[in-house]
Amino acid sequence: MxxxxxxxxxxxxxxxxxxxxMVNRSNPEQFQLxxxxxxxxxxxxxxxxxxxxxxxxxxxxxxxxxxxPWKLEERVDQLHGLLTILGKAxxxxxxxxxxxxxHETLTAIAVGRTTDVDDDTRDEILRGLxxxxxxxxxxxxxxxxxxxxxxxxxx
Length: 155
What we know:
Low-confidence stretches: 8-21, 145-155
Distance between the termini: 59 Å
Order of helices and strands: HHHHH
Shape: elongated
Number of helices: 5
Largest sheet: none
Mean pLDDT: 75
């Protein structure tokens, strides 16, 4: 078994004991893991090269391969926030073009122009767009400018 610190043990605490299971009550996510010969050493070497513990290296790889799912509406909101920041950092024309392409893509999904998206996903994107455009209208009113991402595609 590979424990949290990257040490190999038999899962019973004392290497000579087969009667006392090792229990970690403070971390219910801990579990035994059997690794093929040589894998532990390769993980440890890679972790050492990158200044991480073996456990941190395993968790990093697992997080990369099994990322936490995103809620689509939250992601649209995050995208709006990132585009707002991008708009402040880039020349206006370039930022407007990026924002317009993202908005056109999300709008195409929401209105059914993109054919391989299910109805629930379309509804989530539409709700995100409604919030996005509401924020854009408030921002534009405060600045006296029309929001770039309310423009519709000419196609």
